[in-house]
Automatic annotation (TrEMBL):
Function recorded in the entry: Catalyzes the Claisen rearrangement of chorismate to prephenate and the decarboxylation/dehydration of prephenate to phenylpyruvate.
GO CC terms, sorted: cytoplasm
The Prephenate dehydratase domain, residue ranges: 86-264
UniProt site positions, description: Essential for prephenate dehydratase activity: 257
EC number(s) reported in the record: 4.2.1.51, 5.4.99.5
GO BP annotation list: chorismate metabolic process; L-phenylalanine biosynthetic process
Catalytic activity: chorismate = prephenate; prephenate + H(+) = 3-phenylpyruvate + CO2 + H2O
Taxonomic classification: Bacteria, Pseudomonadati, Pseudomonadota, Betaproteobacteria, Nitrosomonadales
Family annotation (InterPro entries): ACT-like_dom_sf, ACT_dom, Chor_mutase/pphenate_deHydtase, Chorismate_II_sf, CM_dom_sf, CM_II_prokaryot, G/b/e-P-prot_chorismate_mutase, Preph_deHydtase
Domain Chorismate mutase: 1-86
Protein name from the UniProt record: Bifunctional chorismate mutase/prephenate dehydratase
NCBIfam families documented for this protein: CM_P2, PRK11898.1
GO molecular function: chorismate mutase activity; prephenate dehydratase activity
Superkingdom of origin organism: Bacteria
Length: 355
């Protein structure tokens, strides 16, 4: 070892000793805060402020994404000193939902794989899990209907959102595409990769496309059949020991899935929030225009408007709306108050920090 290398490593060692001390001091403070809280440990608004502040202060060379991931892990460990969180998600292991859990909560949580979106809601409603993570929309494929239908019925609140860039891979036991006779995947993932499949697969007509309940299920099946491939994330290839034949095969390179964190808590304002509501109105000319007019009047921006069958009458709809701001912000509160007076139905799903 050269003298210069030794000196650099000595400096890293002494910085690590400092970091070790500081991180443990941080954990002790989190524990003290935990003793002062009654009830809810996880404070999404505070975590979002902590991360936003660090991003603003970050002098580099580490990027804001690096800093965010590092601090999410530090916060995750500190939070666990107060109380370990259990998070239900749409399993099995290796799904994008699992990645979304880690992206928001870090690794120091008990992640609970569920068989269905319904099961995620049930686990949180029954108190078996503290929070749940469910997919709500994809930038290519649109809304996840089941999540929206369950949001309408549930007593749970929306406590957060997670945006996850979704990069699909074609994975198999080997990388020779000519032996592939079947491809397994979730219908949403097939739809996200249609262009690539049509362009790159030899003998496309002869290849069966088989739907599975999740990408990770597709990977599990492909791991037991040498003539099969799966479309899934990199994580699923790791979990099931498969090779990556092609990566980033999604047709839109910005392909992103948005997930919601569901729980039982009303989240306080962070300063940069969103509010999700479901509403409906009578079926007459101009009714929707009138219903939404207060948003324009009080300068509330609408990020999303999605209609779903209400399941109460033929051709009757409910509207899922995301707006900017917290329900306690004055302009949002006034707009929602007016809407409540006009709507035949209004449910505020929750306010939470913007991703
Ligand atoms: C320490 C706290 O508890 C949790 C841990 C946090 C942290 O480590 O920074 C932030 C918010 C909470 O989820 C707190 O509420 O400040």
């Amino acid at each position: 070892m050269t003298e210069q290398l030794k000196q650099l490593r000595d400096r890293i060692d002494s910085i690590d000793s400092e970091l070790l001390k500081l991180i443990n001091m941080r954990a002790e403070l989190a524990q003290q805060i935990g003793h002062q809280k009654n009830g809810v440990t996880y404070r999404p608004e505070r975590e979002s402020q902590v991360l936003a502040r660090l991003q603003q202060l970050n002098p580099g060379p580490l990027t804001n994404e690096h800093i965010t991931q590092l601090f999410i892990e530090i916060i995750s460990a500190c939070r666990a000193m107060e109380e370990p969180l259990s998070i239900a998600y749409l399993g099995p292991q290796g799904t994008f939902s699992e990645e979304a859990v880690t992206k928001r909560f870090g690794s120091t949580v008990a992640a609970l794989a569920c068989n269905s979106i319904d099961d995620v809601f049930r686990k949180v409603e029954s108190g078996t899990a503290s929070y749940g993570v469910v997919p709500v929309e994809n930038s290519t494929e649109g809304a996840v209907g089941r999540t929206m239908d369950l949001l309408l019925q549930t007593s749970l609140t929306v406590c957060g959102e997670i945006e996850l860039p979704v990069h699909q891979c074609l994975i198999a036991q080997q990388t020779d595409l000519t032996v592939i006779q079947k491809i397994y995947s979730h219908p949403q993932s097939f739809a996200q990769c249609l262009g690539w499949l049509n362009k790159h697969l030899p003998n496309l007509q002869a290849i069966a496309r088989i739907d599975t309940a999740s990408n990770a299920d597709a990977a599990r099946i492909a791991a037991a059949d040498k003539n099969a491939a799966a479309i899934a994330g990199r994580k699923a290839a790791d979990v099931f020991g498969l090779k990556i034949c092609a990566k980033n095969i999604e047709d839109d390179p910005n392909n992103t899935t948005r997930f919601l964190v569901i729980g039982t808590q009303q989240v306080s304002a962070s300063g940069k929030d969103k509010t999700s509501i479901v509403t409906s109105t009578s079926n007459r000319p101009g009714a929707i225009h009138e219903l939404l007019a207060p948003f324009a009047r009080y300068q509330v921006s609408m990020n999303r408007l999605e209609s779903r069958p209400s399941r109460r009458g033929l051709w009757e709809y409910v509207f899922f709306i995301d707006i900017e701001g917290h329900q306690q912000d004055e302009n949002v509160a006034k707009a929602l108050e007016e809407i409540r007076n006009k709507a035949t139905f209004l449910k505020i799903l929750g306010s939470y920090p913007s991703a």
